[in-house]
Automatic annotation (TrEMBL):
The keyword RNA-binding does not apply. This is LysE family translocator. It comes from the Bacteria. The chain crosses the membrane at residues 6-28, 40-68, 159-179. One of its GO terms (cellular component) is plasma membrane. It comes from Streptomyces luteoverticillatus. One of its GO terms (molecular function) is amino acid transmembrane transporter activity. Its main location: membrane. It is a multi-pass membrane protein. Keywords: Cell membrane, Membrane, Transmembrane, Transmembrane helix. It is found in: Cell membrane. Coiled coil: none annotated.
Length: 211
């Protein structure tokens, strides 16, 4: 029963993981800029958020999101504001680079604390997405066998989701690394920032106006 539940849940969240979305855009953009440490920080921050959602759901806390309109709306608007700010900043940076100079940009040194900054960005992005909480409230209990310890089984299922997320992120980072020389050209970086910034703004708008 437990093994069957783990495999079934892995199939569901595996399909969810490889579906292009906010996480994919954020990881690809960071890795494409050559910021490998920060990219892995983003990856692990996102998965830390996933583990938090799983733990809160297993403990019954996230049921408040489904039961309380105020709690859901507060988190939804906070998440939308954060995404709009992050996406707008990327678009502004791309515009600033385009108008500042036509000369090639020098390679940027690795930012101090890049991993920690990436981890915070990934974590906040994940935790401010109320749809993650609602997804776990709706889906996770269905895969917990009646005979299994509820909280521990919930954490085990969430760990499967996190591991799949890390494995898929490794593919994305590897893809960006293979195209590193092209992606680090000023024009390519501006295009990446525009695409990612627009996508993130779109996710923010969708979260703000969606139900």
């Amino acid at each position: 029963m437990v093994i069957t539940a783990l495999w079934s849940f892995a199939l569901v969240v595996g399909l969810l993981t490889i579906t292009p979305g906010l996480d994919t855009a954020l990881i690809l953009r960071t890795a494409a800029r050559g910021e490998q440490r920060r990219a892995w920080g983003v990856v692990l921050g996102i998965q830390t958020g996933t583990l938090c959602w799983g733990a809160l759901t297993s403990a019954g806390v996230t049921a408040l999101l489904a039961a309380s309109r105020l709690a859901y709306e507060t988190l939804r608007w906070a998440g939308a504001a954060y995404l709009l700010w992050m996406g707008a900043r990327m678009l502004w940076e791309a515009r600033s680079r385009a108008t500042a100079s036509a000369e090639p940009e020098p390679a940027e040194p690795a930012a101090p604390g890049g991993f920690a900054a990436g981890w915070r960005q990934g974590l906040v992005t994940n935790l401010l997405n109320p749809k993650m909480g609602v997804f776990y409230v709706a889906v996770l209990p269905q895969f917990i066998p009646a005979s299994a310890p509820h909280f521990l089984m919930g954490l085990a299922l969430t760990s499967v989701h996190a591991v799949l997320g890390v494995l898929w992120a490794a593919v994305l980072v590897g893809f960006a690394r293979a195209l590193r020389d092209w992606l680090r050209k000023p024009a390519a970086r501006r295009a990446m920032d525009r695409i990612t910034g627009t996508a993130i703004v779109g996710f923010g708008v969708k979260l703000a106006v969606g139900e």
